[in-house]
Amino acid sequence: MRAYDGGVVLRYMLPPFGTGFRIQSEGTEFRFARAYDCFGLNLGTFGNSHEGEFDPVNSGKIRPFHLFDAPLVCKTGTGSETIALAEADKQDYAGAYFSGFLDGAPGVGIRLSPRHDGRPDNAPAPPPVIVAQPAGPFATPWRVIMTGDTPGTLVESSLIPVLARPGALKDTAWIRPGKGPGTGGTDGRWMFQIQVSTPPRTRPISISLLR
Asked: What is the pTM of this model?
């Protein structure tokens, strides 16, 4: 566990096991002092695009079957004080969602996304996390409670990138912005969107609108 000016974070460190191990679920919970007014993206299913609108929701009405994506942003009721529940430095671990408690208490718990490995019909689902012979201690993602005097303070926070491990790419000078194909449709219209492309896909693509 660590404490920063902009929040509190925690993670679990598991010792190495010679034959590896499996994680079936995670019991991390965030119990609120009272029902907070929040904004969240309730995706409702594990297979999703992580896209949608953040709707207002009272934390006391978040149910066990809800699947809120990170971040879950809540006002504490003390002035403009705001918190956000998030995660950081995820590697070799399942996606996490926020769900309510069976007893209806205000707050949320972590619910891990199941694996989508192909398996025969009626076969039991594999556990969300499978670690095979780790070379050293295994670290789960950081569970993050961001805090701010105002919602804008959370936007300005650098806590998430501070927690991330250094990038694997040491030399990024070869990355150049360019054009690439993409589709996005509204009201029956499809278009090509400007995207970043990297070698070997460096050939420009004309932008067009199809009706």
From this structure: 0.79
Q: Is 2-163 a CATH 2.40.37.10 domain?
A: no
CA 110 – CA 64 distance, rounded (Å)? 10
Burial class (CB in 10 A: 0-12, 13-18, 19+), 133: exposed
Domain boundaries, the chain: 2-163, 172-211
User: Tens of pLDDT along the chain (211 residues)?
Assistant: 999 999 999 999 988 877 788 889 999 999 999 999 999 999 999 888 898 999 999 999 999 999 999 999 999 999 999 999 999 999 889 999 999 999 989 999 999 998 877 566 666 667 888 887 667 788 999 999 999 999 999 999 999 999 998 888 888 888 877 665 555 555 554 454 455 455 555 444 444 444 4
CA distances from 125 to 20, 68, 164, 168 (A): 18, 22, 30, 32
Q: How far is CA 203 from the centre of its chain?
A: 33
